[in-house]
Design brief:
Helices cover about 80% and strands about 0% of the residues. The chain has 13 helices and no strands.
Length: about 260
Amino acid sequence: MGIGSSALLVSAGVASGLAGSIAGLASLFSYPALLAAGLPPVAANVTNTVALFSNTVGTAAGSRTELRGQRARLLRLAAVAALGGAVGAALLLGTPSSAFEAVVPWLIALGSVLILVRDPLRRLVASRPRRDRTAAAGPGHTARLTLPMACAVLLVGLYGGYFGAASGVLMLAVLSLSASAGEPLPVTNAVKNIATGAANVTAAVAYVLVAPVHWGAAVALGLGAFAGSWVGPLIVRRLPETPLRIAIALAGLGLAVSLWHQGT
């Protein structure tokens, strides 16, 4: 891989780290860059998954403030998401991708819409009797992981391990609806980064063992992603919540339309 391709991947990695930690759209930059560097689609997909492990490390380092007191919640979510990531990796390695990829744009669009209508849905959930709701106890959000939420996290983790584009948007939608009404978006976003990272890491381990990872591209992309993902939480901390949430949702809808157009 030449110097030009390496520079392209490092730059795309920085953009991916920023987009992933802020909006859950890391693959919007990294996957096309890998294709532009000459990797075939399957190799680009698995290399992208391995490289974006550094995204999880960077966001965890940059989000220490938001993740304080979240350990129990993170362990539960990460365990479920990691299981989904393992299943997704197995599907990618053992099945044709055409059927699953057909529904990807619709999943991304659904997650984006859920982010847009988060507050009305939260009010609807809050209006139900207390015995039907999960209580959010304090900043650590130590409420139990309900079965519907666990299933949703598992499915998003599966999608993240299988393909991954905009899996952060889907995870943010799930966590936004289940989080306490007073939880700031930077906290939910930081938790989202760890949950999607757990699915990514599980899939990455499988790909390292049996898939055609291009290590030169993975290192170049990963270095850039680490830098971008470390800075991303600092930006989220300083941006107003509502415009940021709307921007994330609109970017997700744009990606959904782009993927749908590519598949038609």
